TrEMBL record:
Any single Pfam family the record assigns to this protein: Methyltransf_16
Organism: Planoprotostelium fungivorum
UniProt keyword terms in alphabetical order: Methyltransferase, Transferase
Name this polypeptide is given: Methyltransferase-like protein 21D-like
GO molecular function: methyltransferase activity
GO biological process assignments: methylation
Superkingdom in the source lineage: Eukaryota
């Protein structure tokens, strides 16, 4: 099981937490992907967050993932908020994210399925429609609740991504169940999380390690600018003993 580092929070200068209300909750947010602008629409309590920024920029880091690495990769994003990678799987007072990481991955050439529950899927569709000109790969938006049947999603994916998903212990089981059903021994699973809740992180690691081999992505591999000591990324793979 991966060793989890816990940090005292200090926001970097690019952090969304340091921006004004309009910038954080209302104005469209833009991320540049290989010279193309991906526009994240923000509405009500849906917004781009630091965890999604760190994860998205990690995937754009060409020192780790060479140019064209993502071309044709089949990727599914779980609980993607309005697309960026978020956690609107339950009613919460927390602010969730917008169609971001999934859209970024399609802009990098991947074939992406972005999932969430209704009505979040409707806002995700607005963001993907806004960015269809810059998405090199294919994309679709589908409803998926963690733990439900995934037969309609086809064969296991090359990559599974999720963010802002380690908060409530009662959701760990359904999340792990979905990741197991959508993966095989060759699927790479990437999760970003904030080291704000030691107990929740530890509980997730303990439960997930029953099914997955887990490693912490070194911060040296994160994007040079868009990284933070309070945001971690883990990489997971289904244990070989559980592969059919």
């Amino acid at each position: 099981m991966a060793e989890v580092a816990h940090y005292q929070k200090e926001y970097p200068e690019w952090s969304r937490h340091l921006q004004g209300l309009h910038e954080r909750y209302v104005d469209p947010f833009v991320i540049n992907v290989q010279g193309r602008d991906v526009v994240v629409l923000q509405e009500n309590v849906m917004q781009a967050e630091d965890l999604s920024l760190v994860l998205s920029h990690y995937f754009c880091n060409e020192t780790v993932f060479p140019l064209e690495f993502w071309n044709g990769k089949r990727i599914i994003e779980l609980g993607s908020g309005t697309g960026i990678v978020g956690r609107p799987q339950t009613v919460s007072t927390r602010f969730d994210a917008h169609a971001f990481t999934g859209t970024v991955m399609a802009s990098l050439g991947a074939d992406v399925v972005i999932t969430d529950k209704h009505p979040q899927t409707e806002l995700i569709k607005k963001t993907t429609e806004r960015n269809k000109q810059v998405m090199v790969g294919t994309h679709s938006v589908q409803e998926l609740l963690w733990g439900q049947d995934v037969a309609a999603f086809g064969k296991p994916y090359d990559v599974i991504i999720a963010s802002e998903c380690i908060y409530y212990n009662d959701l760990v089981g359904p999340l792990c169940d979905s990741m197991r059903k959508l993966s095989n021994g060759n699927t790479d699973i990437y999760l970003s999380y904030e080291t704000h809740n030691d107990e929740s992180v530890d509980f997730f690691m303990e439960e997930a390690s029953l099914f997955f081999d887990i490693s912490l992505v070194p911060h040296l591999d994160h994007h040079r600018e868009f990284q933070s000591e309070y945001v971690n990324i883990i990489k997971m793979r289904l244990k070989q003993s559980l592969c059919k």
